[in-house]
């Protein structure tokens, strides 16, 4: 667990881990609901037709249900993979292929393939496979395999190498899981968790509850034990029918019909408790939304919506209710109040109905279930009231601040919606960039920066442009698409390559440099400095001719890393400018903390200087140069009045349309260096 936590903490901020885990599980459960509900419907009608003596229709419906049950684990793997892929920069389809490959390997090695269909049959392994894929893709930063990408060949090579390594690791993992599962089953066995004995059954049920309380379906985790239980039950039923044995008290049917009514934790009692005693409108809405599912023993909406998982108060009745139910049913059968369970009822059969069938079409089974459900309601009641009291205070404070009432269920749906929207946006961005690269090209333009004191050129800022098929130029609005696809580092590398080539054609010095805009994502990459220095060496360009512009976002995103990166770059002679100063909200402290060489005052500050207050602010900000030892640059100077104003404020360098617009390299050479 600690290892997984540490692994995750490299990827996500610690406080978001459990929150994100909760939301991911809920979203996956919700996305699979259509399949689960279709199965529940098939079973319900299957039973109805069986009781009405339409055995052919009933058989078809049970076959349909069997098929749905068989494809569930694989679907789980696909949905979990699809959902988790959006948290990485890898294409969903590739991510899912990785997950399925791992899932199959682990399932084959563990003998977890369904009999008729040869499909993997353990949803828990499906989740683990998708999670392992997620960890792998995030750790090794696997990116989109985009045919039009500038570095397609090298990416393809990387993908092939990664797939190979991943499959080798998958093989090793599959062997390892066999050992872990054996160990786990052994521990359960040694601790007396044998579901066929009274005390063993209580332990088994408690372990199921504890696992459920952290969102793990215990039936999947204790798969081997469950299979054993199933086989023993079948053998006992067969022996009973042959007249060779009496029915066991404890059996698969016993657990399915009496200890998980409404889903794990006897959730139907919780549902009724909320409907009867809750004063929170949100909780009642949630319970109503969950009702059609809980009837079929599917409790994910309640489990994650309330939530019960990771909830120290609600976990107590969640474990206690099935235990009480276990003891009551056990003694009711042992002392002959009710007959022993004589068939295995599908776990999705609704409560009352399932008791009736389990006890050989005997109404006494339904009555026993009813008693247990009512007792369960009163066990849940004090815990629920304690929990909801605390919860409603919390809700009130949220309402006071935002006056928006947001139900937990709605936030879950929002989460699923945003995951789907993010995937849509990504694929649209991908399409746009694909056709862009197909039809046109990226080119660099350069804008002059001039000293206010000497009116000499001090640098050129490299600005990216897109030239479409007809030769029309577009400003870099497409940068958003690169950001969305986590492809900024790739774009920055392409820009660096082009600018360094261009720099060979310009007479540069440490007094006349070229400035490149570098994105937050690139600065955060561990190998950024080495890459840049090796490319400079390759083109035989001195680092003292180069400047980098970074925005405040880089500072906010990556504090520790940035300081080291800046120091390394500066020790090589590269200057670093803070771009767009004045557009962020915490610019001042950052300037003192980080050793910038230049500060570029955003045009928005200049636009604000039409009022006396705005002018005072610009004056004040321009003075920062002497405090922080930075060269101050005024961006976006368009008119003579603006120029006079910034000069009066003491700004050192000016950039703007008044001096020159961004222009192609050829024009720069012709205009400034032709003599
Ligand atoms: P930036 O780094 O602040 O670049 C200055 C922007 O101001 C440029 O817009 C430039 O054309 C524009 N500008 C210059 N003088 C004036 C003026 O007098 N008036 C007005 N209204 N605008 C002026 P551009 O080229 O559209 O670039 C927008 C932003 O896109 C840049 O802002 C920079 O953040 C980003 N960008 C541009 N090229 C690159 C690149 O190669 N790599 C990366 N990572 N980002 C880039
Ligand atoms: Mg810039
Ligand atoms: Mg700027």
Written overview of the protein:
Strands 1-2-4-5-6-7-8-9 form an eight-stranded mixed β-barrel. 63% of the residues lie in helices and 8% in strands. It has four domains: 18-191, no CATH class; 198-390, no CATH class; 392-439, no CATH class; 440-674, TIM Barrel (Alpha-Beta Barrel). The termini are far apart. It has 30 helices and ten strands. The chain is of the alpha/beta class and 675 residues long.
- Write down the overall geometry: elongated
- Biggest beta sheet summary: 8 strands, mixed, barrel
CATH superfamily of the largest domain: EAL domain
**How many DSSP-defined strands?**
10
Q: Kindly name the structural category.
A: alpha/beta
Transmembrane segments: 21-49, 61-83, 95-118, 124-142, 163-184, 196-216, 284-306, 313-333, 353-380
Domain PTS EIIC type-3: 1-383
GO molecular function, one term: protein-N(PI)-phosphohistidine-sugar phosphotransferase activity
Pfam family, one: PTS_EIIC
Describe the secondary structure blueprint for this structure.
Layout: H1 2-9, H2 14-31, H3 33-51, H4 55-85, H5 92-109, H6 123-139, H7 152-190, H8 198-212, H9 218-221, H10 223-241, H11 252-258, H12 267-277, H13 281-294, H14 300-305, H15 315-334, H16 353-358, H17 363-402, H18 408-439, E1 441-451, E2 457-467, E3 473-474, H19 479-484, H20 488-503, E4 513-517, H21 520-523, H22 528-538, E5 546-551, H23 552-557, H24 559-571, E6 575-581, H25 587-593, E7 598-601, H26 603-607, H27 612-622, H28 624-628, E8 631-634, H29 640-649, E9 653-654, E10 663-664, H30 665-673
Parallel strand pairs: 2-4, 4-5, 5-6, 6-7, 7-8, 8-9
Antiparallel strand pairs: 1-2, 1-9, 1-10, 2-3
Helix pairs in contact: 2-4, 2-18, 3-4, 4-5, 4-6, 5-6, 5-7, 8-15, 12-13, 12-17, 15-17
The structure holds ligand C2E and magnesium ion (MG) (2 copies).
One magnesium ion binds at residues 461, 517, 549, 579.
């Amino acid at each position: 667990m600690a290892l997984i936590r540490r692994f995750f903490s490299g990827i996500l901020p610690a406080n978001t881990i459990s929150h994100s885990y909760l939301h991911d599980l809920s979203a996956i459960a919700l996305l699979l609901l259509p399949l689960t509900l279709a199965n529940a419907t098939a079973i319900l009608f299957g039973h109805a037709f069986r009781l009405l003596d339409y055995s052919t229709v009933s058989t078809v419906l049970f076959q349909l249900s069997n098929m749905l049950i068989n494809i569930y684990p694989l679907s789980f793997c696909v949905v979990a993979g699809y959902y988790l892929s959006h948290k990485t920069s890898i294409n969903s389809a590739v991510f899912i292929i990785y997950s399925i490959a791992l899932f199959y390997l682990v399932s084959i090695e563990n003998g977890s393939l369904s009999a008729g269909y040869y499909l993997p049959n353990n949803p828990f392994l499906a989740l683990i496979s998708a999670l392992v894929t997620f960890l792998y893709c995030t750790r090794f930063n696997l990116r989109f395999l985009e045919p039009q990408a500038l570095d397609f060949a090298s990416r393809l090579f990387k993908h092939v190498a990664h797939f190979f390594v991943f499959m080798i690791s998958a093989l090793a993992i599959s062997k390892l899981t066999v050992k872990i599962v054996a160990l786990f089953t052994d521990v359960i066995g040694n601790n007396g968790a044998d579901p066929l004995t009274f005390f063993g059954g209580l332990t088994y049920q408690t372990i199921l509850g504890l696992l459920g309380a952290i969102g793990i379906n215990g039936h999947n985790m204790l798969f081997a034990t469950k299979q054993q239980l199933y086989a023993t039950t079948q053998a006992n039923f067969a022996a009973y029918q042959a007249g060779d044995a009496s029915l066991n008290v404890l059996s698969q049917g016993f657990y399915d019909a009496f200890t998980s009514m409404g889903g794990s934790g006897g959730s139907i009692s919780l549902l009724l408790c909320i409907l009867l005693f809750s004063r929170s409108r949100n909780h009642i809405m949630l319970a109503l939304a969950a009702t059609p599912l809980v009837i079929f023993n599917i409790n994910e909406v309640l489990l994650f919506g309330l939530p019960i998982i990771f909830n120290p108060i609600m976990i107590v009745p969640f474990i206690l209710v099935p235990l009480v139910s276990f003891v009551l049913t056990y003694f009711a059968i042992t002392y002959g109040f009710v007959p022993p369970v004589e068939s295995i009822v599908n776990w999705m059969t609704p409560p009352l109905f399932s008791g009736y069938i389990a006890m050989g079409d005997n109404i006494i089974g339904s009555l026993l279930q009813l008693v247990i459900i009512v007792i369960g309601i009163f066990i849940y009641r004090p815990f629920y009231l304690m929990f909801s009291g605390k919860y409603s205070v919390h809700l009130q404070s949220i309402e006071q601040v935002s006056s928006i009432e947001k139900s937990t269920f709605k936030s879950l749906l929002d989460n699923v919606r945003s995951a789907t929207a993010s995937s849509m946006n990504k694929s649209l961005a991908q399409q746009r960039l694909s056709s862009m690269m197909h039809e046109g090209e990226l080119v660099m333009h350069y804008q002059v920066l001039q000293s206010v004191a000497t009116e000499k050129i001090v640098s050129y800022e490299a600005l990216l442009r897109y030239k479409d098929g007809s030769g029309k130029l577009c400003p870099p609005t497409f940068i958003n698409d690169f950001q969305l696809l986590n492809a900024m580092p790739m774009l920055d590398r392409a820009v660096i390559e082009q600018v360094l080539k261009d720099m060979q054609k310009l007479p540069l010095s440490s007094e006349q440099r070229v400035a490149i805009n570098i994105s937050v994502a690139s600065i955060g990459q561990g190998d950024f400095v080495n890459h840049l220095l090796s490319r400079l060496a390759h083109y035989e360009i001195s680092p003292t001719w180069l400047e980098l512009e970074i925005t405040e976002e880089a500072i906010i995103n990556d504090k520790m890393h940035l300081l080291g990166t800046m120091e390394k770059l500066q020790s090589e002679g590269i200057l670093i400018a803070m771009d767009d100063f004045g557009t962020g909200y915490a610019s001042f402290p950052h300037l003192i903390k980080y050793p910038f060489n230049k500060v570029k005052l955003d045009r928005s500050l200049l636009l604000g200087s039409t009022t006396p207050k705005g002018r005072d602010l610009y004056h004040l900000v321009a003075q920062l140069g002497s405090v922080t030892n930075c060269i101050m640059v005024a961006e976006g100077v368009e008119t003579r009045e603006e120029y006079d104003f910034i000069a009066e404020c003491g700004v050192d360098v000016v950039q703007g349309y008044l001096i020159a617009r961004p222009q192609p390299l050829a024009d720069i050479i012709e205009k400034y260096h032709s003599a």
